[in-house]
Amino acid sequence: MRFFDQCTRFVETVDKNQSALAEVDKFIASAFMRRVQEKLADRLLVPYSNITSDMAEASFYLCAYEFAIKTINSPWCQLLDEEDALVLEYANDLKQFWKRGYGQDINSKSSCILFHDVFSRLDRVASEIRSGSNVTEAVTIQVGHAETLLPLLTLLGFFKDSMPLTSSNYVNQAQRAFRTSRMLPYAANLVLVLYDCNGELRLQAMLNERPIEFPGLAVHQGVQGAPLYQDVREHYKELLQGCNFEKECHLFPSK
């Protein structure tokens, strides 16, 4: 479940490469972030030069952690307003976009090994159902981290906006789908349920216990949120026929 640690191309070109987060660095240096720092300094009655972007981000995360864990309105939250929180949220989304999401192709391709594992299990169950055999593996539970889940969600095409997140389009991305605070909260989970509907096999995807629609399949399905399994496989045919972990993760992949 830590496939990314074994993906050389991801480790060398993204994880260890600061330039991969160039858009994040630009946004941190933007007028939006400077204004957050200045407002924080004003509330603390200290010179602007005393407050760094790291301090502003730390205040935001301490506020978020204490609210999430203790359900209290932390004193750290008093240092920020909603506008500040939105800016700091975007800074984090930018980082995840470029380091784990759509920003780099290898981010999602590093999860090829998990993608194939998931579909091999689904295929085995589908074959057993069609043959009338008993299902030998009714439930499979695999545990990882947000860094495990986000690349797979990206590979599957979920939460992809029409325009990439950049340092210069913060205002235009106010209604973005790629919002990690909603996609990957504490105990985030992706569930794929294979249904036998009177001989028709359908696949339901749920993220954090809520149904989500497979990208590109919503308008073609007969049952809301649960397209035919064969349609799902057809939709991801190129990945199922390719997406080779060893090939994708080689530092200098062959064409």
UniProtKB/TrEMBL annotation:
Coiled-coil portions: none
Matching InterPro entries: His_Pase_clade-2 (IPR000560), His_PPase_superfam (IPR029033)
Question: Where is the secretion signal located?
Answer: none
Pfam families this protein is in? His_Phos_2
A GO molecular function assigned to this protein is: inositol phosphate phosphatase activity
Q: Which UniProt keywords apply?
A: Hydrolase
Q: Which domain of life is it from?
A: Eukaryota
Q: What is this protein called?
A: Multiple inositol polyphosphate phosphatase 1
